[in-house]
Write a structure and sequence with these properties.
Blueprint: H1 9-27, H2 31-34, E1 47-49, H3 54-66, E2 71-75, H4 80-93, E3 99-103, H5 110-119, E4 126-128, H6 134-143, E5 148-150, H7 157-166, E6 171-174, H8 176-179, H9 182-185, H10 189-193, E7 198-199
Parallel strand pairs: 1-2, 2-3, 3-4, 4-5, 5-6, 6-7
Helix pairs in contact: 3-4, 4-5
C-alpha cells in the first residue's frame, strides 16, 4: 500500500487490521499469539479527566476512583494560571498510590510550557505532548525536570529512534491508526507489549 499510495495511514490501518483479522480467523489464533505469544503483565487502565475547573476535575477523578482507577489522565492547556492551579490541586488531592498525567495535546507555546512545568516542580507528574512540534517539546524537555510523554508527533518508527537518541521522553502514547495499522506498530515489539513505552491506554 505504501508503494501504491504514500501517506494516508488512517485509511491503510483499517485494511491492515482487516488482513490480520482474516489471518487470525484462518489460523484459529488470536492476534496476541500471532504476534509472539501472551504476556502475563497487568494492563493498568487510565481514567480520562476532561478539562474543567480544579473542582470539576477532582469530581471526575473521584468518579474514577469509585470504579477502581488509580491513574488519571487530565486534559489541560487552556490557560497558564489555571493550568498551574489545576495541576497543584489535582496533585495535592491524589493519594500516594495514584498518579496523574497532564495531557496538553500540543496546546502550549514553549514559554507557556516552561512557565507551567517549572511552577509545579514540587509535584511528580507526567506531561503529554506539551507543544505543537517534536522540536519544541524536545527543548522543553531539556529545560524542565518533569517526565514527558510524546504522542501526536510519534508517527513512524524513525520517530521512536530519534526520540530515544535525543532522550526526548520517558514514554510514548502510540495510536495504531496513526502509524498505519498493526503491521507498522508491531515492527518494534515494545510498541505492543509496553516494554519501556505505553500503548494507547
Amino acid at each position: 500500500m505504501d508503494l501504491a499510495l504514500p501517506g494516508h495511514p488512517y485509511i491503510k490501518s483499517a485494511l491492515d487490521m482487516a488482513c490480520w483479522d482474516i489471518l487470525g480467523k484462518a489460523t484459529g489464533l488470536p492476534l496476541c499469539e500471532l504476534f509472539g505469544g501472551r504476556i502475563d503483565e497487568p494492563v493498568i487502565p487510565q481514567n480520562s479527566v476532561s478539562t474543567g475547573t480544579p473542582e470539576e476535575m477532582i469530581k471526575s477523578i473521584q468518579w474514577g476512583q469509585e470504579r477502581g482507577y488509580i491513574v488519571h489522565t487530565c486534559k489541560i492547556g487552556a490557560d497558564v494560571a489555571l493550568d498551574i492551579e489545576r495541576i497543584k490541586t489535582v496533585s495535592a488531592y491524589l493519594p500516594g498510590n495514584e498518579s496523574a498525567t497532564f495531557d496538553v495535546n500540543r496546546a502550549w507555546l514553549m514559554d507557556e510550557a516552561l512557565r507551567v512545568m517549572n511552577a509545579v516542580k514540587d509535584y511528580v507528574c507526567y506531561f503529554e505532548e506539551p507543544c505543537e512540534t517534536y522540536e519544541e517539546s524536545l527543548q522543553v524537555r531539556r529545560l524542565t525536570s518533569h517526565p514527558i510523554i510524546l504522542d501526536e508527533c510519534i508517527q513512524r518508527y524513525g520517530d521512536i529512534v530519534r526520540a530515544n537518541a535525543d532522550n526526548a521522553c520517558e514514554a510514548i502514547g502510540l495510536k495504531v491508526c496513526r502509524v498505519g495499522g498493526l503491521t507498522k506498530a508491531q515492527a518494534d515489539p515494545r510498541f505492543l507489549y509496553g516494554k519501556g513505552y505505553s500503548d494507547e491506554y
